[in-house]
Amino acid sequence: MAAAAAAARRVSCSLLRRDHRHLLPLLRPFASSAGGQPQLTVETSVPFTGHKIDPPSRSVDTNPSELLSFFREMSLMRRMEIAADSLYKSKLIRGFCHLYDGQEAVAIGLEASITKKDAIITAYRDHCIYLARGGSLVESFAELMGRRAGCSKGKGGSMHFYKKESGFFGGHGIVGAQVPLGCGLAFAQRYLKEGTVTFALYGDGAANQGQLFEALNISALWDLPVILVCENNHYGMGTAEWRAAKSPAYYKRGDYVPGLKVDGMDVLAVKQACKFAKEYALQNGPIILEMDTYRYHGHSMSDPGSTYRTRDEITGVRQERDPIERVRKLIVSYELATASELKDFEKEVRKEVDEAIAQAKESPMPDPSELFTNVYVKGFGVEAFGADRKEVKAVLP
Amino acid sequence: MATAMALRLFGRRTSIAARGFSSSCETEKAAKDGKPINLFSAINQALHIALDTDPRAYVFGEDVRFGGVFRCTTGLADRFGRSRVFNTPLCEQGIVGFAIGLAAMGNRAIAEIQFADYIYPAFDQIVNEAAKFRYRSGNEFNCGGLTIRTPYGAVGHGGHYHSQSPESFFCHVPGLKVVIPRSPQQAKGLLLSCIRDPNPSIFFEPKWLYRLAVEEVPEHDYMLPLSEAEVIRQGSDITLVGWGAQLSVLEQACVEAAKEGISCELIDLRTLIPWDKETVEASVRKTGKLLISHEAPVTGGFGAEISASIAESCFLRLEAPVARICGLDTPFPLVYEQFYMPTKNKILDAIKATVNY
Predict the structure, then answer these.
(1) What molecular functions are annotated in GO for this chain (chain B) (predicted)?
(2) Which of B66, B89, B349 comes nearest A388 by C-beta?
């Protein structure tokens, strides 16, 4: 055991020193079959609970580089969200901004279990999922600030991040509307027969939308390879789950569709559950995953997040269940890196985020002509005048 | 960066703050003895009165118990109890369907849809159930006690899903009433009228004005008539028609036009369906010109209906084509809001073009 740990440490040291720059721009975890790495087996925090299905084992296989990349990416996401918070307060980001810090393990664990050919669709708390799908920091910040270099060319904003090449279908403002859409994606995937699935993410608030049940019924009827993931952070905006739902056991609400309850703050549990779910869905049709997670920020930047929950609750979760701390403890206990090395990691992450913000700030706002693009090729022919007819005039294209 | 500066220049953040609205010159008017309060407080007062005067009135929606995301429902739960003021889960279709049922049993159901942009899941219930209930049952049943309150309109940074003006979708449905107030004093009276009106109504509240519009509002119980437009500024050269927050923009344009010697008559439609054709026609017969302005996209907006109707009835009197200065035919944009919106300068421009036609 000591020898294995020592071996792991040697490997990871070299990873840290040599591959610093290598790890820096990477935003997806190493494949766990990276040659010659020791295999680690970690138990999840709690066992999985199944509804009409036998849950997978709570022993998860992983390796040092995967754990380190988990740590790095979650730190990156955490840093990005906090930076977005201060950008919003300095009015560089306007409109709506829904932050994901606290829930990073769901995005990372999910990504670790699938490929870029699988599709993910989510609601408006999408910055970190975009990053996990291979999006860049610069594009994220630029989109948040409404600039041209943004992933949606500045036309979408915080709630509408998309990435076609990696199967990230966004980014939706209307609660619950993305789930039937996700089932439609899975429908197409079934025809394509490429062994791909769709993960449709939604929150505990959205779980009460009627369209979810319609989509579930159709998916189950037609055996669509869709996995519905309820990111249960226990509050739908300001409403606690027990006030909104007769049954807050969201993994059971599929009734005839099996479900799994997962500790969403444990990235390894998330990875295991998503891997299991993907295999299941390809054979049998829909399955529901309920991720028990938590968001530190309020619902959005206009919500302090403390009027409907106590500060003690928030700090309690932060101390006991924080996803990044969990991985940090794992890394330190397996001696894959020292605490100070991890702190250096975090400093670099901070620097990277700051550089990305600086770069994003230089991007200009989209050209006013973009107002009319991507809607009609030839519009209704209505003339639109600017503030002064002499200066700006556009016929809708 | 220059574009950002230019955009700010075109913005409408200029002079709406704490501006009283010009008093009307119409007959039915509440006494001017109130305290200056803003729009959400006026609506809050109306709701307090509604629940107080009718023990079978209920207020519900997402997050209304703590006061609502715009503070319109503050204090109601404490005063009237949890069985009359309660939160619903996140399901607009459920909220409206439930409200229709409650109203069908003779109650006053005041349902809130948190943002008008979210009203579409409830569209089927509103159009197919609420609007047709009385008609299809031969007056055996009705859901007249239904009032749906919802904030609508641009707010400066709302983007696609917090800025929409969907009023015209509902104006196309016989059986509903659509009411839009322009100011706190109007809002209180009109909301009480909607609640007490024996027809299902949708009350669109201009969210831009929730804090910004401050006016003296009488504290007592008063109602303002539905389906009556109000001429809020007399003029002789051109008739301007609008509703909601857009009226403040129109009014600024009137003031500017007056400097150039154009006398504008400004009409607040107040109720969109059934709308007060007579007032608008009388005004157009006086001025011979009409301009309509609303935030919703121009094609298919309610301005189109007014325009067609006036063209039919006042064709020979019209001296210029009816002008519509409205939102553009694009989804409500994120960063281009200042270009999309029907601003004062666009309206002024159109006033001049119409008058000099």
Answers:
(1) branched-chain 2-oxo acid dehydrogenase activity
(2) B349
Domain with CATH 3.40.50.970 in chain B: 17-218
Structural domain of residue A380, as residue ranges? Answer: 371-397
| DSSP calls for B312-331 | HHSTTT-SSPPEEEEE-SSP
Q: Check B48, B62, B129, B162 and give the catalytic one.
A: B162
| Known catalytic membership, residue B48 | no
Rounded CA-CA distance A82/A342 in Å is 19
pLDDT of residue A376: 76
Q: How many CB pairs under 8 A join A and B?
A: 117
Beta bridge pairs of residue A383: A395
> Where are any strands of DSSP class E within chain B?
35-38, 57-61, 85-87, 108-112, 146-152, 177-179, 201-206, 214-217, 230-233, 238-242, 264-268, 271-273, 290-297, 323-327
- CA of residue A305 relative to chain centroid, distance: 20
Chain A residue nearest residue B12, CA to CA:
A387
ipTM over cut 0.90: no
DSSP 8-state code for residue B263: -
Query: What pTM value is reported for the model?
Result: 0.85
Does the CB of B308 have a partner CB in chain A at under 8 Å? no
For residue A348 the two structure tokens come to 């670099």
- The H-assigned helical ranges of B54-166 are 76-80, 92-104, 123-124, 133-136
What DSSP element (H or E) covers A190?
A: helix A178-192
CA distance A129 to chain B (A): 21
Per the structure, the count of domains in chain A is 2
Q: In this predicted model, what pLDDT tens digit does every residue of A222-263 receive, in sequence order?
A: 999 999 999 999 999 988 999 999 999 999 999 999 999 999
Shortest CB distance from B63 goes to which of A239, A370, A385? Answer: A239
From chain B, the residues in CB contact with A386 under 8 A are 10, 339, 346
Token couple for B245:
């927050």
Predicted confidence at residue A382, as pLDDT, reads 57
Interface of B with A in 314-343 (CB under 8 A): 328-331, 333-336, 339-340, 343
Return the percentage of chain A with pLDDT > 90, whole number: 78
pLDDT on residue B26: 34
Same domain, A308 and A393: no
Residues A194 and A140 in one domain: yes
Residue B48 scores a pLDDT above 90: yes
Q: Does B162 contact A at CB distance below 8 Å?
A: yes
Judge whether B305 counts as a catalytic residue. Answer: no
pLDDT tens digits, B232-279: 999 999 999 999 999 999 999 999 999 999 999 999 999 999 999 999
Asked if omega into B274 is within 30° of 0 (cis), the reply is yes
Which of B118, B349, B353 shows the shortest C-beta gap to A174? B118
Judge whether A181 and A218 are in contact, CB under 8 Å. Answer: no
Mean pLDDT, chain A, integer: 88
- Which residues 6+ apart lie within 8 Å of A54 measured at CB? none
Query: Is B14 within 8 Å of chain A by CB?
Result: no
Question: What is the dotted CATH code of the domain comprising B17-218?
Answer: 3.40.50.970
Q: Are residues A198 and A225 in the same domain?
A: yes
CATH class entry, domain B230-355:
alpha beta
Q: Give the gap in angstroms from C-alpha A198 to the nearest C-alpha of chain B.
A: 24
Q: How many residues belong to chain A?
A: 397
